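HUMAN:
Just now I want nothing more than another pair of eyes on a protein record. I would be glad if you read both lines and explained how they fit together. I have put the entry right below:
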Amino acid sequence: MFISGASCSGFAAITFGFMVYSQPGTTFIVLCLAIRAFQGACSSATNTSLFAITAKEFPDRVSSMVGIYESTAGLSFIVGPVLGGAIYQFGGFSLPLHIVGSSIL
């Protein structure tokens, strides 16, 4: 579940990066919402399975490992927009999404 969720999430990020080539209008909005909903479902599968993997691999230190995971997630919420903004300035809308999607895959 973890690998399939991460793979689907990476694929969705790359696909969303190609939305700049879609025609504006209702189709664009529906496709954007569908891709982001799919990415959200994939991310929730990844996060849920990550907690299960953590509980199985570290049964005596679950709280410490979850704390490390949450701290890393918090750090990524701080660094991500700054780094993404810099990449956006350099390469436009698609480049940050393609880099993130490729790194997930």
User: Anything to note?
Assistant: The two ends are 14 Å apart (CA to CA). Helices lie at 2-17, 26-57, 62-91, 94-104. The mean pLDDT is 91.
